[in-house]
Specification:
By secondary structure, this protein is of the alpha+beta class. It has 3 domains: 145 residues, Jelly Rolls (Sandwich), CATH 2.60.120.280; 44 residues, Orthogonal Bundle (Arc Repressor Mutant, subunit A), CATH 1.10.10; 54 residues, Homeodomain-like (Arc Repressor Mutant, subunit A, Orthogonal Bundle). Helix content is 43%, strand content 21%. The protein has 10 helices and 10 strands. The strands form 2 sheets. Strands 1-2-9-4-7-10 form a 6-stranded antiparallel β-sheet. Strands 3-8-5-6 form a 4-stranded antiparallel β-sheet. Strand 1 and strand 2 form a beta hairpin. The longest helix has 19 residues. The protein is globular, with a radius of gyration of 19 Å. The chain starts with 9 loop residues before the first strand and ends with a helix. 35% of the residues are buried. InterPro entries: AraC-bd, AraC_XylS_family_regulators, Homeodomain-like_sf, HTH-like, HTH_AraC. It comes from Pseudomonas fungipugnans. This is AraC family transcriptional regulator.
């Protein structure tokens, strides 16, 4: 994939929030390669046809429908018609979702695209007025509404006999957040959480939607993006975030976002 987007394509990011990331974009053809977020990606197509592969199946998102992509599930994106597609998306971390769920397994919407009007309304509360900053209380209320709506639509299903330790998973996540620039092993996390390593690995996936290593990598990529926003070079941002070098960071960046860091940097000027 070329590092340069089509001259017809654009990406606009909403006013910065400490809780969610919101964006609106238009792509005339190919948008992004197969990749996985460690967040929920929830949004709506405004015009055209947005086509993507999700859980091995080709999906189409049309205006009026809601996309719900689960953390750590691979997907790509491209136009499903000659007119291209315009869409809005918000990204919500499982850690934030758990502030509402209090230790229940993450809701999983298996189909990727929903016609449910409840989800459409709950998503619109966060995606309307993209140019404006969200009032903090409005944002919290809207997040609560979206998470509880998603839980209601998906239902609550936990395999019989399966038990997980939310407290252990939360301790491991806090350890990673506090030591993000250091080398961290699963043994370090298990010792911190008071849980055996493989049970902890299952706990983490159940409550935060991804593995401990991938969570660590994504937090480092968050630091890279924040450093670039602040004017740092990709080389310096990579090392400061805990990667070996820029090439190491670039490999993970492409896997996480489906585009190269240089193309992402170009979109900041849109």
């Amino acid at each position: 994939m070329s590092d340069l987007p089509s001259p017809h394509d654009w990406v606009k990011r909403s006013a910065q929030s400490l809780k969610v990331e919101r964006l609106e974009a238009f792509f005339s053809g190919h948008a992004f390669d197969a990749h996985k977020h460690d967040t929920y990606a929830i949004g709506r197509t405004l015009s055209g046809v947005q086509r993507f592969r999700y859980r091995g199946v080709s999906k189409n998102s049309l205006p009026g429908e809601t996309m719900i992509l689960h953390p750590d599930v691979e997907h790509d994106g491209h136009a499903g018609s000659a007119s291209g597609f315009r869409y809005q998306m918000l990204y919500i971390s499982p850690a934030l979702v758990q502030q509402v769920l209090h230790g229940k397994p993450l809701p999983f919407f298996k189909d990727g695209v929903s016609h449910d009007p409840r989800l459409s309304a709950a998503t619109a509360a966060l995606l309307n007025s993209m140019e404006d900053e969200l009032d903090p209380l409005e944002e919290d209320d809207s997040l609560y509404g979206l998470v509880t709506t998603l839980q209601a639509v998906c239902g609550y299903n936990q395999a019989h006999g399966t038990t997980h330790d939310y407290a252990a998973a939360a301790l491991a996540r806090e350890y990673i957040d506090d030591c993000i620039e250091q080398a961290i092993t699963l043994d370090d996390l298990a010792k911190c959480a008071g849980r055996d390593r493989w049970s902890l690995s299952k706990d983490f996936r159940a409550y935060f939607g991804t593995s401990p290593h991938r969570y660590m990598t994504m937090r480092r990529l968050d630091r890279v993006k924040a450093a670039v926003f602040a004017g740092r070079t990709l080389v310096d941002a990579s090392v400061e975030a805990g990667f070996f070098d820029q090439s190491h960071m670039t490999r993970h960046f492409k896997k996480a976002f489906g585009i190269s860091p240089s193309r992402w940097c170009l979109s900041l000027g849109e």
